[in-house]
Write a sequence for this structure.
């Protein structure tokens, strides 16, 4: 395998603007192109590739958009070998150079050993590292130590639309021979020490719309006599979380798993240099001062973030508008054993209470637009032990055993539908900036990650 | 005068995207083109036209943009006649068809006698009505009853940048012979009954920036351990006004002029059909139930509107971002005898108080980006009486004597610098939707408005 070739393919893949979050035809076309390019790459590797038509998606505004196909691919079907299925996604979060990127987000740019570009670490780089590992065996003309399957989608950032139905349908076909499932869609907790992830948070994404009329007002002509939708919305959003990060929705903490002494000890075992973490995050001060509190609030407690407002004045300058209709957006990261539909009811009831106390004549509509379950695994499963050994071989160190505060809904889904052990083996460093401006993957992580996957194939062969 | 010709010119003028609010080079070029087109029109009318270079404008981000020229024009200088100066502006608020316009906002479109287009009523239509009135005398080969001056600018919606310096400079030159100043940059209070305006509210426009870092975060990776800027900002904005529209900034009402019995009577005299007003506004319920309360809260009490947030997620879809740096925007409409710099101090102190109680590690910066004084006139000045008579002649009715809740800073400025009586003679109907989607001027208002200005010239000649 030529690592330069791997980087060139990453450059090609990053150049495709496969944004699944903004529901516009242009990005959907890019997503389809992305899936075609990936299918071609796997075919050239000798895989048997199926691109599954996923139909189309009905948006809240009535618009219908096609869903990019899911790639199911297979390499080898030796019944004497174990079968490892790799899940990845090739869609990305929105990126716009004007939002603070130092370069065109869709042109992979190397600076000081860092490969900058939207999707570089989330998740195009890791998908390619797995492909590179397979192609290394091919280049060396060695048999693959395990049978390999791929399931690659293009809607992860938009909530893996329609994927669950597909996995359910393929449960006894594509997934029937699968022994283990590997995902590499999160980050280490440090810049240099690898990790294995055994749990992820879920996510409930809410919109709260406040409407006076479907047209804006001029603040000179109407300011002073209206129940202004923005005043209502700001009060609603302000009722959700206090300045210490505590969520104010009644009952929201009721189902959070109680904290045990044993669990506390797992956090103590993790090396986290808070000073380095704060510096690499470029955050002056966190809500908490100890390593244990920080890890627990990222992994095992829920959090609420307010993302923004649609329909208000969001440009530079000074527009004297009273927006007629605004949509607030926030989400709650869920942890075991919170339940998505209970949270939906709690949030809706809370917002209705707050709104009714305002005696506003506006209309309020609360919607949960995404509901993704939290996930937790058994870290004594065999593939966890294999992954640990592969990490020792490539990096010469024990991995951090971590959870992830992000949501990778497919983990929970595989566990519940396919009933196979799922492991998350992240490749990216803590400062990769997934979902934000100047996302990158380190050249070192990309190359060592490729080696790690190859070593993991060999360890998995030992298991069988 | 051919009224069709007047409408065709309005179509041409509306087609120029002279947006002064969004500080981008493309719109500035359009503004310059707008001023050139207007100067040409005035020259063809026989006016002596000067386009005054206004230099350039330094934006907060360091960018420099040229300011469109101000047109000073003169028609006639007969010392036996009075001299009336007309102020108008040819810049417009932002307009984007995707925001809910039923047509391209820059293509004047007639539907049921309504001429839709950005700037149709604010302020291109009224400027053209005045020009049409002058050209009517020309077409009839009659002498103008008065000497006419024009001062026409292109930065009104952006706070009339640099205009005050120009008026100060021209005080003893261009303005030396001026007896009266007429502005037509607001609306009637009804759909059919004309009005004269003797007061306007001022405006203090604020930005409050909350910054953690200049890069966004992923809510999975950082949600739960940050002082999130959006949570701070929502709390700050939520502390400004209560659900009854009462402003919560301490001391803000201290300098509001006390309400007299005589003043209450002026509101009682105004005909306002609340039911019709509510229907034409398409508002289900106002904050107040009586005509007097509504008029007072639009004209003689301050109001606070929250306009929006820059830097947060404002697109359709569900992005799980924690914005790293956000800017909230709100403004307070000021009334006699509130003072701009006192208000600036009160708001800044209040936000600093609220922010310090949150113990947030973020940085907050409050800025007043515009500060415009309220204005009030003596309604017994001679030109007020002349305008009343002209209205009786053209419309056969007494005008509503009203104030305007909007800010027309030039009124206060003319009064204070030029020391001449200023009158506001609006032409547009209450439902014209200035600053909002589907702005329009009625064909009837545009034509009768032209007649009204012609009648006003004749009445002014009588005065002299």
């Amino acid at each position: 395998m030529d690592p330069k070739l791997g980087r060139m393919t990453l450059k090609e893949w990053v150049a495709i603007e496969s944004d699944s979050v903004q529901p516009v035809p242009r990005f959907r076309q890019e997503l389809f192109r992305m899936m075609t390019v990936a299918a071609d790459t796997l075919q050239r590797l000798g895989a048997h590739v199926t691109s599954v038509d996923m139909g189309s998606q009905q948006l809240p505004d009535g618009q219908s958009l096609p869903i990019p196909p899911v790639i199911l691919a297979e390499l080898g079907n030796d019944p004497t070998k174990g079968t490892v299925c790799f899940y990845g996604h090739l869609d990305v979060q929105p990126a716009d150079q004007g939002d603070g990127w130092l370069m065109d987000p869709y042109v992979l740019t190397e600076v000081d050993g860092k490969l900058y570009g939207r999707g570089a670490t989330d998740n195009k780089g890791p998908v390619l590292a797995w492909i590179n590992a397979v192609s290394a065996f091919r280049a060396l003309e060695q048999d693959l130590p395990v049978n390999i399957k791929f399931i690659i989608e293009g809607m992860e950032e938009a909530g893996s639309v329609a994927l669950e139905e597909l996995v359910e349908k393929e449960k006894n076909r594509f997934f029937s021979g699968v022994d283990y499932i590997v995902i590499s869609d999160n980050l280490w907790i440090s810049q240099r020490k690898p990790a294995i992830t055994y749990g992820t948070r879920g996510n409930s994404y809410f919109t709260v719309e406040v409407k006076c009329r479907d047209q804006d007002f001029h603040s000179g002509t109407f300011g002073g006599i209206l129940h202004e939708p923005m005043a209502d919305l700001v009060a609603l959003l302000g009722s959700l979380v206090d300045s210490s990060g505590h969520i104010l929705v009644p009952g929201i903490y009721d189902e959070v798993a109680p904290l045990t002494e044993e669990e506390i000890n797992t956090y103590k075992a993790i090396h986290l240099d808070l000073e380095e973490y704060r510096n690499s995050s470029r955050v002056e001060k966190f809500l908490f001062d100890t390593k244990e509190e920080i890890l627990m609030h990222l992994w095992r407690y829920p959090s609420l973030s307010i993302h923004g407002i649609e329909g208000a004045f969001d440009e530079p300058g000074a527009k004297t508008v009273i927006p007629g209709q605004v949509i607030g957006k926030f989400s709650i990261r869920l942890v075991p054993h919170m339940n998505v539909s209970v949270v939906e009811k709690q949030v809706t009831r809370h917002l209705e209470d707050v709104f009714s106390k305002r005696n506003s004549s506006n209309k309020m509509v609360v919607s949960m637009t995404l509901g993704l379950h939290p996930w937790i695994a058994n870290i004594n499963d065999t593939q966890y032990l294999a992954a640990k050994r592969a990490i020792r071989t490539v990096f010469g160190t024990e991995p951090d055993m971590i959870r992830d505060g992000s949501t990778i809904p497919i983990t929970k889904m595989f566990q519940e539908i396919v009933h196979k052990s799922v492991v998350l083996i992240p490749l990216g460093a803590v400062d990769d900036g997934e979902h934000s401006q100047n996302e990158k993957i380190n050249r070192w992580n990309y190359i060592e990650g490729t080696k790690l996957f190859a070593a993991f194939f060999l360890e998995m062969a030992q298991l069988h």
Observations:
- The mean pLDDT of chain B is 94.
- The two ends of chain B are 26 Å apart (CA to CA).
- Chain B has 13 helices and 20 strands.
